[in-house]
Amino acid sequence: MNFFRFFDNNNGEYIYPITFDFEGGFFMPRATKSVEYKSNGISVSPAVPTAGDSIKVLYDGLLSKNGANNVYVHFGFGTGWNKASYFRMNKSSSGFEATLPVEYSDTLNICFKDCANNWDNNFGRNYSFDVNQ
User: Fold this and answer.
1) Which of 9, 50, 57, 100 has the least CB density, counted as fewest CB within 10 Å?
2) What is d(CA 59, CA 18) in angstroms, rounded to the nearest whole number?
3) Domain count, the chain
4) CA distance 51 to 108
């Protein structure tokens, strides 16, 4: 895992993990999905979780912005959504949050729903995160 470091105009430092793709004979940096999903109001910590640990999910996305009082995170592992579960997220000053167990080293898939059964699933693509072994 490599890290990309940048500074904002207020001298704040931000460090994001990145991966590299090999394109045209060059290694090109590619932001991790946790950075890509930030614009949808999704963030996770750590950015690349490890199997056996927990991951904190912060959600201030479409459902939150449209007045949902309760949000549930639906998550599972791999293409078959193994060990799929729902957790009710806790409302916070910045949206909703939940801590999830990372049980497998397979891809972690996440989507969100509210009590009216409205979904935020990234337009059918879900929010997927790599997991370290």
Assistant:
1) 9
2) 21
3) 2
4) 10
Q: What is the chain's Cα-based Rg?
A: 16
Q: Are residues 62 and 85 in the same domain?
A: yes
Beta carbons within 10 angstroms of residue 33's beta carbon: 19
Dist. CA 71–CA 102, nearest whole Å: 20
pLDDT of residue 55: 94
Considering the domain architecture, whether residues 9 and 40 belong to the same structural domain is answered as no
Token duo for residue 95: 């949206």
CB 84 within 8 A of CB 74: yes
**Residues in contact with 48: Cβ distance below 8 Å, sequence separation at least 6, in sequence order:** 1, 17, 32, 34, 129, 130, 131, 132
- Which of 18-27, 29-38, 112-121 shows the lowest mean pLDDT across its residues? 18-27
What per-residue confidence (pLDDT) applies to 24? 52
Give the confidence band of 47 by pLDDT, cuts at 50, 70, 90. confident
- What whole-number distance in Å separates Cα of residue 124 and Cα of residue 105? 23
pTM reported for the whole predicted model? 0.75
